[in-house]
Amino acid sequence: MKTAQRHGSSLSSPDFARLQGVWRSQGYGNVLLIEEDWYTLFEETSISCLKIDEGSIEELGHYYEDLEVSPGGQAFSAHRVTGVARIRFRRLKGLPASVTESHRHRANDPQYNFDVFWRTFHEQYALFELKGVAWDRAHHDYLPQINANTSQETLFAIMAAMLRPLKDGHIRLHSPWGHYRA
């Protein structure tokens, strides 16, 4: 039996403050670190675990609603305020080793960024077959265009070109070098 903790449209800070620790989402490829008054959200693939957002516990309480914590506190679920799916999290003993490994790569390494981009979709996007897109083939076709000297603008253009065949209005790609939306 789960106990629901509801506080209108957002959660109070103490609700998340008592969930201090490291949590992995079931699906969605996220790892959430909750500290006393701060959170950090990571996006995880089999080769990376990169920080994508951070903020105060209060801000986290405005991002999720309808918190349900399992007895014993080893799992919780909540709705994202902007979504319809309930996201479930399980407690981890600590941050994945891939967080440290990800720090070893330069943020502007085009080859690493391409691999993380490709893996994120490979591991999280479920509609390749339905859309008739051979994602493995896209990797094979575009990888030769990437090297240590590939500009960030060119890398962005390649990523957008890889996404175009999906024709999926739920996908957006934003960077300082451009914006892509189907």
TrEMBL record:
It comes from the Bacteria. Residues 108-163 form the Tricorn protease C1 domain. InterPro entries: ClpP/crotonase-like_dom_sf (IPR029045), Tricorn_C1 (IPR028204). This is Tricorn protease C1 domain-containing protein. It comes from Marinobacter vulgaris.
